[in-house]
């Protein structure tokens, strides 16, 4: 039999219920340019519209509640004002032929009393303080505050917050949602034995440590249908907050992913190594992980053009997500197609500010003629 439709990086596919024009996803990228209340300015419309040739845009991490916020000027998706600011973004992406899912985020312990309602302590599975520094509204940096451990009876309230955010995302016109279960934020804090010391049904065994994240993903799936819900994991990442790895990442995330596989989700998205670092797919069996999951897989972390082409052609992944290259190259898909040079993004303008380093990167056509 001859194969007539071999998958390439540039061929269309379907992820759950979402049809995408190519295998290149834009990874979630925190840019910290919303206002103090997490409401996007019109600049975000232009930023996402410029990148709409990605097969799938995954938005920057977006707070599901005030409690879930840990960095000043990150956007939210839990009030009417948030919905009204996101709707023109999804409209612009759709008009340009793209697809966009909203990444739902609760930072857990990675927050500061100054960012919380009435100066409340951030919440976490256990009262263990994170390291590193976070940005406050004053522009100053501070270590995350000491969190308080969530009471068991507070869990349903957080599930409700996730559902509210999922509903808001639907109202705002997204194609689906991605649950942020990576990078040592709230869900990952429950999964890892380094940050979860609970003795109730949400701590201890693997079954218990994965219970809350699975409940969150199931709750969000009730709103969207599981075939429009993806999940992002980072088994090898130590940030945020200098969080130690789980004591046995292969076993722990394998167990977690086995549970996720039963939910019929749109996709599993893995950061294969240290977030914002190198690809370390050789240090962990990601292939085993997505085999356990059994559904579509989006690979991420420092993929070169050649690695991405190979990942799709070999069937290793259904899509490859690029993060930093999408900052400097709004037309990344076209540049990869032509094997054209990439513009290095300026790190100094990654977080905060306005148009500079956000919406002023040029496409190939603009660079040639401009
Ligand atoms: C960069 C700066 C702040 C937060 C993540 C949401 O690492 C983030 C993040 C990235 O997942």
Main features:
binds 2-Phenylacrylic acid, alpha/beta, TIM Barrel, 370 residues, two-stranded antiparallel sheet
Task: Write a structural description.
The protein is an alpha/beta fold and 370 residues long. The protein has a single domain (3-369), classed as TIM Barrel (Alpha-Beta Barrel), CATH 3.20.20.70. The chain is built from twelve helices and 14 strands. The chain has helices spanning 43-50, 80-95, 155-171, 186-191, 206-209, 211-224, 249-261, 286-293, 305-313, 324-328, 332-338, 364-369, and strands spanning 13-15, 18-20, 24-26, 56-63, 100-105, 123-124, 134-135, 141-142, 148-149, 176-180, 229-233, 267-271, 297-300, 319-322. The strands form four sheets. An eight-stranded parallel β-barrel has the order 3-4-5-10-11-12-13-14, surrounded by five helices. Helix 7 packs parallel to helix 8. It is globular and about 55 Å long. It starts with 12 loop residues before the first strand and ends with a helix. Residues 30, 61, 71, 182-183, 275 line the site of 2-Phenylacrylic acid.
């Amino acid at each position: 039999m001859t194969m007539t439709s071999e998958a390439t990086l540039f061929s269309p596919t379907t992820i759950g219920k979402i049809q995408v024009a190519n295998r290149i996803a834009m990874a979630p990228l925190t840019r910290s340019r919303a206002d103090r209340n997490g409401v996007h300015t019109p600049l975000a419309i232009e930023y996402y519209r410029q990148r709409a040739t990605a097969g799938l845009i995954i938005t920057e991490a977006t707070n599901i509640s005030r409690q879930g916020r840990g960095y000043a000027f990150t956007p939210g998706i839990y009030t009417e004002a948030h919905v009204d600011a996101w709707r023109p973004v999804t409209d612009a992406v759709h008009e340009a032929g793209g697809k966009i899912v909203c990444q739902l985020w609760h930072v857990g312990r990675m927050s500061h009393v100054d960012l919380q309602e009435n100066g409340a302590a951030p919440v976490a599975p256990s009262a263990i303080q994170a390291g590193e520094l976070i940005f406050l509204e004053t522009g100053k940096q501070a270590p995350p505050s000491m969190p308080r451990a969530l009471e068991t009876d507070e869990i349903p309230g957080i599930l409700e917050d996730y559902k509210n955010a999922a509903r808001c995302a639907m109202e705002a016109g997204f194609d689906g949602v991605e649950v942020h279960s990576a990078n040592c934020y709230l869900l990952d804090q429950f999964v890892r034995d380094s940050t979860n010391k609970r003795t109730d049904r949400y701590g201890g065994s693997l079954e218990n440590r994965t219970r809350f994240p699975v409940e969150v993903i199931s709750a969000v799936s009730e709103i969207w249908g599981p075939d429009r819900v993806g999940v992002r994991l980072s088994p090898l990442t130590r940030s945020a907050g200098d969080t130690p790895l789980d004591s046995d990442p292969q076993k722990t995330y394998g167990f977690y992913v086995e549970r996720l596989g039963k939910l019929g989700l749109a996709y599993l998205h893995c950061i294969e190594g240290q977030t914002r670092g190198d690809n370390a797919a050789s240090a962990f069996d990601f292939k085993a992980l997505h085999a356990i999951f059994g559904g579509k897989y989006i690979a991420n972390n420092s993929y070169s053009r050649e690695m991405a082409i190979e990942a799709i052609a070999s069937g290793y992944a259904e899509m490859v997500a690029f993060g930093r290259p999408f900052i400097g190259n709004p037309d990344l898909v076209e540049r990869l197609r032509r094997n054209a040079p990439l513009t290095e993004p300026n790190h100094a303008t990654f977080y905060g500010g306005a148009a500079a380093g956000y919406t002023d990167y040029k496409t190939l056509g603009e660079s040639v003629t401009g």
